[in-house]
Design a protein that fits this description.
This protein has 267 residues and is an alpha/beta fold. It folds into two domains: 5-84 and 171-266, Rossmann fold (3-Layer(aba) Sandwich), CATH 3.40.50.300; 97-169, no CATH class. It has helices spanning 48-56, 78-81, 102-110, 124-135, 154-166, 184-200, 212-217, 236-240, 244-255, 262-266; strands at 5-14, 22-32, 37-42, 63-68, 71-72, 85-88, 172-176, 205-208, 221-226, 229-235. Strand 9 (221-226) and strand 10 (229-235) form a beta hairpin. Helix 3 (102-110) packs parallel to helix 5. The two termini are 37 Å apart.
Length: 267
């Protein structure tokens, strides 16, 4: 069986040879099977978001190869990787066009990777499809198709961004702390929606989070990163049986020190 994602010995150093040199990724190796939903935790500067940016092509890696569904994308520019990926960012303002309506945003997402023409407009069939998708969120947005996205709450925008990221099924869905800017109740709702979309579409997904409880509760696999390396990788029943105290002990055992990340400890 082919892997959906293969990271082979990925290295990335920022500002090499200067006083600000930072080894961000130090030989990262990771393979995801189709349908894997992996949560990624670690302290500040561990390499979590850097790993997602490496996959998305925000910048080139120094060494190693990246394959998605068997295709080597290591040297592809960011815009050419877009057809393989769906992505939701931490900032609810990112990922949608604030001055455009909900249906216009969804139309742009649904036409991703398709041939563009001068014809524009949302068809009756598309509108019915978007209404059905929005109704599944349970947020009442199906009756606000023509509302400007900029008028919506952060949670509503993230929910729409999730739909947009999966409307054309991506090979890999990247969730980069996509609930960090939301209040706890809204964050829980967005995570519930995330689980639903991933399961119903059988997506392969990676979710960066600082919340250890969320990392345990969601997905079928968990990896912990520290200083640009993966130091812990657990899946299945072993993952389900984890507690936050187990993760803290694992971090201390592997890293040789206590976790001093306030965001992780407080969450």
């Amino acid at each position: 069986m082919a892997y959906m994602l293969e990271l082979d010995n990925i290295h990335k150093t920022f500002n090499p040879g200067t006083i600000n040199e930072k080894i961000a990724l130090d030989g990262v190796n990771l393979k995801l099977n189709p349908g894997d939903f992996v949560t990624i935790i670690g302290g500040n500067g561990a390499g979590k978001s850097t790993t997602l940016n490496a996959i998305a092509g925000v910048w080139s890696v120094d060494a190693g190869t990246i394959k998605i569904n068997g295709t080597d994308i290591t040297s592809l520019p960011e815009y050419k990787r877009a057809k393989f990926l769906g992505r939701v960012f931490q900032d609810p303002m990112t990922g949608t066009a604030a001055t455009m309506s909900i249906e216009e945003n969804m139309a742009i997402a649904s036409r991703r990777g398709k041939k563009r023409t001068l014809k524009w407009g949302v068809t009756k069939e598309e509108r019915a499809k978007y209404r059905e998708m929005l109704a599944s969120l349970g947020l009442g947005l199906e009756d606000r198709l023509t509302s400007k996205v900029g008028l919506l709450s952060g949670g509503q925008r993230q929910a729409i961004t999730l739909l947009m990221a999966s409307i054309v099924k991506p090979d890999l869905l990247l969730l980069d702390e996509h609930t960090a800017a939301l209040d706890p109740k809204t964050a829980a709702k967005v995570l519930e929606i995330s689980d639903k979309i991933i399961e119903e579409n059988n997506l392969t997904a990676m979710m960066v989070t600082h919340n250890m409880k969320d990392a345990i509760a969601h997905g079928n696999r968990l990896i912990m990163m520290h200083e640009g390396r993966i130091i812990y990788d657990v899946a299945g029943e072993e993952k389900k049986a984890l507690h936050v105290s187990d993760l803290l002990k694992k971090f201390e055992d592997v890293s040789g020190g206590e976790l001093d990340n306030d965001r992780m400890l407080l969450s």
